[in-house]
Amino acid sequence: MTTQEQYKKRVKELLSNGTVKMVIGYKAGTTADRRRPLFVRTPEEADKLVLDSACIANLSGYLVTEGLLSDEKRVGIFLRPDGIRSINILAAEAQLNADQIVILGFDIVGQEVTALSGEKATDFSELIGSIKEKAPEAPQNPQLEQLEKMTPKERFAFWQAEFSRCIKCYACRQACPMCYCRRCIVDSNQPQWVNTSSHTLGNFEWNIVRAFHLSGRCVGCGNCDRACPVNIPLRLINAKMAQEVLGAFDHFSGMSETQEPVLASFKKDDSETFIL
Amino acid sequence: MSEPFEPNIVAFVCTYCTYAGADLAGTSRLKYAPNVRIVRLPCTGRISPMFILKALQKGADGVLVSGCHPGDCHFTHGNYHARRRWTVFRALLEFTGIPLERVKFSWISAAEGAKFADFMNSVTEDIRKLGPFDQYKELIRETEAPATL
Amino acid sequence: MTRILLSDKLDNCVARWRKAGLTVIGPVKKETFSSYAAVEKAADVKKETFSSYAAVEKAADFNFEMVMPDRSIKELFFPQTEPMMGYTIKKQDIATEDFKPPAEKRVIFGARPCDASGLAIDDPLFGWDYKDNFWFQRRDETVIVTIACTKSDDFCMCTSLKLAPDSTKGSDVLLRPLQNGKGWQVEELTDRGREAFKEIADQLQDGSEPAAPTAVVAEKFDLDACISWLKNPENFDSTFWKEISMRCIGCGSCTFLCPTCHCFDFQDEGDTYSGIRRKNWDSCSFSLFTMHTSGHNPRSTQSARWRQRIMHKFNYFPGKFTANSCSGCGRCSRQCPVDMGITETLQEISTLKP
Amino acid sequence: MQGAHNNIYKPAIMKIVDRHDEAPGVRTLKLEFQNPADHELFKQNYRTGMFGLYGVYGEGESTFCVASPETRKDYIECTFRQSGRVTSALASADIGDLITYRGPYGNRFPIENFYGKNLIFVSGGIALPPTRSVIWSCLDQREKFGKITIVYGARTVADLVYKHELEEWEKRDDVDLVLTVDPGGESPDWKHRVGFVPTVLEQAAPSPDNCIAVICGPPIMIKFTLISLKKLGFEESNVYTTLENRMKCGVGKCGRCNVGSVYVCKEGPVFTAAEVSKMPQADL
Question: Last residue of some domain: D207, D225, D242?
């Protein structure tokens, strides 16, 4: 029995015995390589569920939709390790109560889908711990190294070219589970910190603000990268900031529900190499 | 020879230490470059990276952020938070190609009037050598130009 | 016998048009860094591409292989951001400077029929009593040369919108690719098109090479059934809207890439001394679009916004301007981060009884 | 014909010649055109019920009605509550400062259809300005109309707008003014009614025959007032209201003011209750 069939059976059980009121999973999309988010509420709908190597989107963002968890009922959700880390961060930032989440964990290795054992977020903590150990040697984007070898002027020119294409559709923000602010800083106009027009300066500022607010919170799921209609390599910035935060403060995002947000906590002996 | 380039520098400083240090520099009749416009804030913990972006957006050639030494903070840990924030924001500026020499961070206590004055002079000279922040000014000019297509 | 333009003559045409002071624009595809999954070797990194209608200097810059560019032709007439007027304020005196669209003439070579018809759909709105000259000055100065489609993908739905891969709506000259792929049959449709092609008349020749068959685009839904369902007031409050839009994340990419979406916002950038008032794209799927300052928001849920998008395009707009505000290019579905779009919604609606 | 590049979004420049506070956070500005050509255009086009976009360069534009009547076109008065970026900038502007104005846009109250009829004006809180424009337009040609009743209420006494004009209307014998404040909003020396506008309206019980009602207020007040008017026997086609939706361009392009298929900025903001009831209520 494939992992998909195993999980279908499990979802039908969860729904019929009332443990969860809804399961968020994937269903087939318009083309062979696309998967759509699916909200399953009855055992019959569970037949539409699909679980294969194309199910890469991080669905945890749907858990903070307004009112979904307000009735204290539990919700099931298919998550890969990056999604589970997102749940930990959202719980640590008091956006949801992790006990309300029944995790149907899976991971994709090459073309294979493997089930992860565990149901509550805390069941996966040593798995996330091992991911953290492997993080420094994990294969980095060759582009990241290429960018780091550039001089500041070249890097500025590179990002200037990339950000000039941005059309401020905010798909990167809306696709990210960490961007749940009711009114984003770019939408507040008293004062207007960041230019909202999508000229290159406005796009530069927006992408810097987005990357800054995700430092130490991004789990590298790539939702933003895939959502961008003009294919700006957004993940590179967030990957770099994750590296930075791990190196400077040994902070790996989404370790547990009680992990303190990196910019909301401090250590007296934090490094300060650049302060005059 | 055209007159030397006079950089526009904005400094965001905390009231209880660096601003007081600036006062001390003034009362001690210390001379320092007039290029720095000082913006006073209650604490470095209140200085958000938005301020730095807004200063650059308005055409500043350099930005300074300065406050109390760790441990001296009037609000006990404002500067500790600021330090983390600066570390992260600085890495971000570096990665996007904004030269780090243009955004400087420092601790200057209320007693360090001399350090404040020297710091003002040294930063002004550094940025004068770097010249105007042309890359960003080019972006600003683009926002003021008529549509091209 | 029809008039033929061979591909190898295209370089001369581009040069001729440019010498005559026209900016030549066409479908262009470029590569960028891929930041997709981290990979071991640089070699197997998947290159990301981005495509749009952009200025070209020589024939090689064109890319006619793609079904259509990611970004629509609308940007060349209704830019994502445009300065309208600059102001400088002195003591109780305001001096303003008008920004005008660039005056240069343009020829868009290689537009797709669904893009060109998108422009024709929006003309009546931009001219409804008040004439938006930011739009019309560009429309009047631009010749649109469309190339009929010989390929389509799963997202194309022009036939469902009563258009076709070789429709002439909104274009000045229609080119039909030749069977042998070496050029196009030329079909001049408007005076403007004839005048632009008079400029390159010596590059054309008469020939009888057959045109390649136009692309086959299956009809995806019964449009009339959908429109009658939408016009029925009871369906406004149907639970269908919540179901179909549950996964919508409220980004603006479907509206910004759509050749017919025309909503915009004004934004002042500057300070109390000088600055610019700009006209920027806005999207009905953003929550702030209809938010009152009092906090009341007539469309406060994402399903209400998605309903507004469909109702506007297939019920309200045709009610005022006869044509549906959709040219069937399929970009909304092709680009949606959660694989939603007009195609799926209208396919579902056509299964509901009015 | 419009010039080669006539920018329909270019505002006229206006000078603030008078300003006074109506209620906490609510201010009225009196504006005069700086450019006679703009003034001429305004004189030709302006009819009561139309709105404009008032702005401050550097902050943006905001939509509210022209509060001055169509019988006094030498100036424009507008009343607004300070609540956002633009209204804060307008509120901090001094007499003599220049602001921008675009308009007049939208349709109007057809007061020529009101000739010879009784009129009842019902409004609440900050919604008196659009009604006041119609009231003064009628009072300036008082003889053309029958009995005029004005029912106006606000949350508290301090929130009442145009206090000096309310006194003026009260003294006039050809106007029947019914003032009220929400329960608990009355001050010790408050002589008028206490109660919500719809209930006070039902007590005043104006007769519906040969009578036109003009109502303006927040959506919740309009809903209940319509019910009261129906109870009193008013035909929906004799009840006029103005919808203050979020509007940006004012000329039917930017797609924001849609209520159902209606573009409020071009086909409104003035509608009869019959037209409003046909609109999808969820979109209001």
Answer: D242
Judge: C257–A139 Cβ closer than 8 Å, yes or no. no
How open is the CA angle A164-C327-C126, to the nearest 5 degrees? 70
One domain, residues D100 and D118:
no
Cα of C135 to nearest chain B Cα, Å: 12
Q: CA–CA distance from D254 to each of A187, C262, D108 (Å)?
A: 18, 7, 21
Q: Is residue D51 a contact partner of residue D66, using CB atoms and an 8 Å limit?
A: yes
Determine the distance in angstroms separating the CA of C122 from the nearest CA of chain D, rounded to an integer: 10
Last residue of a domain, one of D61, D79, D105: D105
The answer on D169 and D60 residing in a single domain is no
Asked if residue D118 and residue D222 are part of one domain, the reply reads yes
What class has domain B9-144?
alpha beta
For D18, the domain range is: 12-105
pLDDT score recorded for residue B50: 93
Over residues C90-111, the mean pLDDT reads 90
- State whether residue D280 sits within 8 Å of chain C by CB: yes
Give how many domains chain D has, as a whole number.
2
Chosen for mutation from C28, C33, C254, C343 (greatest number of chain A CBs closer than 10 Å) is C33
| b/e map D196-225, b = 16+ CB within 10 Å | bbbebbbebebebeebbbbbbbeeebbeeb
Chains C and B touch (3+ CB pairs under 8 A): yes
D40 and D140 both lie in a single domain: no
Q: List pLDDT tens digits, range B89-123.
A: 999 999 999 999 999 999 999 999 999 999 999 99
C29 Cα to chain D: minimum distance (Å): 31
> For an interface test with D, which of A190, A193, A196 has the most D Cβ atoms less than 10 Å from its Cβ?
A190
Q: Which residues of D touch C101 (CB under 8 A)?
A: 5
Q: Poorest-confidence range of A7-16, B100-109, D2-11?
A: D2-11
Nearest Cβ partner for B142 among A147, A199, A244: A199
Helices (H), A135-230: 142-149, 152-163, 171-175, 200-214, 223-227
| Domain of residue D42, CATH code | 2.40.30.10
**Are C276 and B147 inside 8 Å of each other by CB?**
no
Residues D76 and D125 in one domain: no
Structure tokens at D227: 């019910």
pLDDT for residue B103: 95
User: Would you say residue D57 lies in a domain?
Assistant: yes
Residues D194, D214: one domain?
yes
Residues D226 and D118 in one domain: yes
Task: Mark whether D51 and D91 lie in a shared domain.
Answer: yes
| ipTM at complex level | 0.92
Asked whether residue D1 carries a pLDDT value surpassing 60, the answer given is: no
Q: Distance from C25 to chain B by nearest Cα, in Å?
A: 10
DSSP labels, chain D: ---TT--TTPPEEEEEEEEEEEETTEEEEEEEESSHHHHHHHHHH--TT-EEEEEETTTEEEEEE--S-TT--SSEEEEEE--SHHHHHHHTPPTT-EEEEEEEES----GGGGTTSEEEEEEEGGGHHHHHHHHHHHHTTGGGSS-EEEEEEESSGGG-SSHHHHHHHHH-TTEEEEEEE-TT---TT--SEES-HHHHHHHH----TTEEEEEES-HHHHHHHHHHHHHTT--GGGEEEE-----SSSSS-SS-SEETTEEHHHH-SEEEHHHHHHS-GGG-
So where are chain A's domains? 3-132, 142-261
More confident residue, A206 or A138: A206
pTM (predicted TM-score): 0.93
- A65-76 pLDDT tens trace: 888 999 999 999
* CB within 8 Å: A199 and C39: no
The answer to whether residue D274 sits within a structural domain is: no
Domains of chain C, by residue range, sit at 2-349
